[in-house]
Amino acid sequence: MNVLGCATGYDEVDDDDGESKEREELVLNIVTMVISMGMIALITIAVVANLDGSRQGAGTMKTLLYVCKKTDEPDSCVRHLKHVGERAPILDYVKAAINATLDELQVVNMPKLDLETNLTPLQAQAYGDCLQLLTLAKEELDSLYTTLSMLPFTNPQDVLNSLSAVISYQQACSAGLMRTNSYELLGFSLKRPIRLTRIALAIVDNFSYSGSEKHSTDDHDHDHEHQLDGSSAWFSGAQRKMMEYQRNGDDEVIDAVVAQDGSGHFSTISESLNACPKNSEGVGKAESPCVIYVKTGKYEERVVVPKDVGQVIMYGDGPMNTTVTGISTRDHKISTTHFRAATFVVMGKEFICKNMGFTAPVNITGAPALLVLSDHAAFFNCKIDGEEGSLHAMAQRQFYRDCEIHGNVDIIKGDSATVIQNSQIIVKPRNSLDLVLRRNMVSAQSRSDKYETTGLVIQNCTIATAQAESGNKSLAGSTYLGTPHTEYSRTIIMESFLGDVIHPEGWCKWSDNYGIDTATFREYNNRGPGANTTKRVRWNTYKTVYERNQMKSFLAAEFIIQSGQWLQNAGIPYESGFIYKK
Question: Which candidate, 250, 360, 353, 240, places its Cα nearest to that of 305?
Fold first, then answer.
């Protein structure tokens, strides 16, 4: 009994202790959970601050009127965003503007059967190009909206780049319609989505930089915030394969070999691209890049690297040995759009190309040898040869190194964020009578909004005539560095050799005084007979810069953000800063 009683008493005491311990554990778990939730909230607030512009975090509310006053069209901004509320987080206003743009693009893309039936073949092509570009714009916005909803800590520079690309697509669509006298098809209805995209761009730009909500309309010389978690890893798969290839020269890392003599897997480049893995819908990009080796040969085909393919690494046997010449133009009456005539078109992201040559098709005025709208595209030791618009860097972030770019009229055009280093830009005589009345131009950059992150930076390059044309006096002073092709065109020439082919004025007007008060043209530390700036144009938007600090925002590490990361991983050499000490 006593034992039993002791046992009973012991059991009762043990139960009390157990309940006490359970309560203690429960309290401890609750406290731990509360602390964890608090930490998560703090971290979330901190990272969302990237799109708030305030060190107080995303919880800081802004009034609609205050936000819209930062845009160029405050009334339109208020009208389209008022449903969000009079006070809301910045991110909510950005997402609402993106959503409104998507709605408008849906309207623009509606069939217009009454107009389509009366189109000429060329107008029908321009209309088809337009629909394709607007589809790219819609996909970019869809992806951006999803990203901001799931990952509100997205690097603001990536957001700005996406919105800038959307504007580029919309403007390219509009320009194509105007070129074929078919603007009434979509041009007028495009104005609203363009306006809404600009509103979103202005909001992100003004509120994504800590302690800075105001800046000049030309240089954007403020430092960009970086993604807080540092999780972005461009080209991780590409780096592995490229390093394996460079180390071993092993054919095992090559996914496809293209050869015209039948010694490869395919005889055309297009066939090899069709065999590359596609991005899985809802899953993301393909796990491993597709490496394509194109053997020596002249490939007479129009090549398109599609958007739905995974990352592609393509290399040849040298720019003079592996060449792509585009569609056959033996028919001198061929008529097509610039977009469809381009020899090599890159749409898929993170495309890397080495040791290849691209030649524009003859007899098609304005046909690009290379047209790129791929984000984080990189070209090394490539030759790009055409006349007008040889390189059409249409949109997104791009890099070119140790390349040759040949042309005469608007040699480099488009509305991308592009850096060209250590390359030769060769001005060639005109072969087309269609270009007689046009001026030779190195750059026709097409930035159309002051908040776009786009522009062309030419660093440590040579701009001259070909060696064979060095004695051609007709080319001396025949070429300008750039023109305000659009209102906010931006071209930077730095640390480069300028031959006597450059006109003493350096820059020329596009039409009357259009853009000369809003564009951005800079020259810094150039050399050569064409670098004398004493007779340069006297525009408010042109500057010969002498202070290095004023040029830092145009260096590769600043201008195409994370350049060190994705270029290094791509196995392409680059200069992140200044090349020459001064």
Answer: 353
Q: Could you tell me if 66 and 191 lie in one domain?
A: yes
Looking at the fold, whether 200 and 242 belong to one and the same domain comes out as: no
CA 26/CA 33 separation, integer angstroms: 10
In a domain, 375, yes or no: yes
Nearest-angstrom CA–CA distance, 198 and 183: 21
* One domain for residues 449 and 323: yes
Adjacent-strand bridge partners of 482: 443, 507
Q: Structure pTM?
A: 0.84
Q: What span, in angstroms and rounded, lies between the C-alpha atoms of 286 and 234?
A: 13
* Phi (first) and psi of residue 378, to 5 degrees: -140, 135
CA quadruple 433, 439, 442, 446: dihedral sign: negative
CA distances from 145 to 101, 102, 138, 257, 260 (A): 11, 10, 10, 38, 44
The answer to the question of residue 260 being in a domain is: yes
Q: Are residues 507 and 547 in the same domain?
A: yes
pLDDT tens across the length of the chain (582 residues)? 433 333 333 333 344 444 444 445 544 555 455 454 554 444 334 434 445 443 333 446 789 999 999 999 999 999 999 999 999 999 999 999 999 999 999 989 887 777 778 899 999 999 999 999 999 999 999 999 999 988 767 788 999 999 999 999 999 999 999 999 988 888 888 999 999 999 999 999 999 843 234 444 344 433 333 322 222 333 344 444 554 444 444 455 899 999 999 999 999 999 999 999 988 644 445 568 999 999 999 999 999 999 999 899 999 999 999 999 998 666 665 678 999 999 999 999 999 999 999 999 988 888 999 999 999 999 999 999 999 999 999 999 999 999 999 999 999 999 999 999 999 999 998 876 665 667 899 999 999 999 999 999 999 999 999 876 666 777 888 999 999 999 999 999 999 999 999 999 999 998 888 999 999 999 999 999 999 999 999 999 999 999 999 999 999 999 987 766 788 777 788 999 999 887
CATH code for the domain of 543: 2.160.20.10
- Residue 474 is classified by DSSP as G
> Concatenated DSSP letters for 258-281?
E-TTS-SSBSSHHHHHHTSPBPBT
Could you tell me the residue range of the domain that residue 174 belongs to? Answer: 62-207
Tell me which residue has tokens 């930062």: 70
Same domain, 254 and 343: yes
391 and 350 belong to one structural domain: yes
CATH code assigned at 170: 1.20.140.40
3 state DSSP class of 167: helix
How far is Cα of residue 402 from the mean position of the Cα atoms in its chain?
A: 20
Q: Are residues 507 and 466 in the same domain?
A: yes
Query: Do 100 and 145 sit in the same domain of this protein?
Result: yes
Structural domains counted in the chain: 2
